[in-house]
Design brief:
about 0% strand, Ferritin, 11 helices, two-stranded parallel sheet, about 325 residues, mainly alpha, 2 domains, 2 strands
Length: about 325
């Protein structure tokens, strides 16, 4: 502890055996609640995986009942209020909103990490316990948490056949593409291409890097706001299955802004021709990056993507250069 700094957290090694049991009970309650939230989040789109998480929540409920029985036998019915956040250096669960919107595979990975953390907790707790029955219970729970990978595997075998899992994985990939990649790619294309004309028209008309940067910044931010609101308002995702309009709006708006800023930022350099040369290199990289993304994630044939993006970008740049130099 730092001298002069007061902390309300207790060290794990300083907990009494009653407090260790109380902490274990609250841990199991939290984990069961998290698994049920995962299940509820997945129930509509991934019903088989939802059943797996329902089964894991029931396992945690069983552990909680065993711990409560042990507490009643040794300490009575009144369980002290102690949670993870009350213990210094104790592992913490990530807030549910940081995980539940990140996709099916992320939830599966988070569940595996939760079980590993629970196993370590029970092993340390058993080491600090002198009562034989409590020590045996905590050791058994550590073994149970270590075996939860097997339990999850059995539940997946029961509810997730090979075809069902493959289908859910395909649906998750499709959802990721529709919610994040497609709007983000559309925004990147719009930001990269639509801002070429005003930026380079200003550049060649004024040969003033500061003015060009301000125009590029305004065009990029304005286009990002416009694209973000347009994407969010165009489709609520209920019928199309494209996911949250807010997520799509953010993806589209942010990528639109970044697409324009890429070739606006070089004009922070005061030398006009150095800034313009770097901006042209950035444009070249941006356009080919878009072609690669379209080909990899959207299965757009490479030649078609090249024609749409590179040729279109070249024409817009030419228009801006001609207008600015006229």
């Amino acid at each position: 502890m730092i001298p002069g700094v007061v902390t309300s957290r207790r060290r794990f090694a300083d907990l009494s055996e009653q407090e260790i049991l109380a902490l274990a009970i609250s841990n199991e309650e939290d984990d069961a609640r998290i698994y049920r939230q995962y299940a509820e989040r997945l129930r509509t789109d991934f019903p088989a995986s939802a059943k797996v998480f329902d089964g894991m929540a029931e396992e945690e409920d069983g552990h909680r009942r065993m711990l409560i029985d042990a507490h009643k036998a040794r300490f009575g019915d009144v369980i002290p209020l102690i949670r993870r956040e009350h213990v210094s250096g104790f592992y913490a669960r990530r807030p549910i909103w940081l995980v539940e919107n990140l996709g099916l595979e992320t939830m599966r990975g988070e569940a595996r990490e939760m079980e590993r953390q629970a196993e370590r907790f029970y092993r340390k707790a058993a080491d600090l316990t002198s009562d034989a029955d409590t020590r045996m219970l905590l050791g058994d729970l550590a073994a149970a948490e270590a075996g939860h990978g097997d339990v999850a595997g059995k539940l997946e075998e029961e509810h997730l056949s090979g075809d069902a899992r493959s289908e859910e994985d395909r649906d998750a990939q499709r959802q990721f593409l529709l919610t994040w990649v497609q709007p983000g790619l559309a925004g990147l294309m719009d930001g990269s291409v639509s801002t070429l004309a005003p930026i380079f028209a200003t550049a060649f008309a004024t040969q003033d890097t500061h003015t060009t940067f301000l125009v590029g910044l305004a065009a990029s931010v304005g286009a990002g706001i416009s694209m973000g609101f347009t994407e969010a308002a165009s489709d609520d995702g209920e019928l199309s299955g494209r996911g949250s309009p807010v997520k799509r709006g953010f993806a589209s708006g942010i990528m639109t802004t970044l697409g324009g800023l890429g070739h606006a930022l070089p004009y922070l350099i005061t030398d006009f021709w150095t800034a313009t040369t770097i901006a042209l290199i950035v444009v070249f990289v941006e356009l080919w990056a878009i072609v690669w993304i379209q080909n990899k994630y959207m299965q757009t044939p490479f030649l078609r993507a090249t024609f749409q993006v590179v040729l279109g970008g070249a024409l817009v740049f030419a228009a801006g250069a001609i207008i600015g130099g006229g």
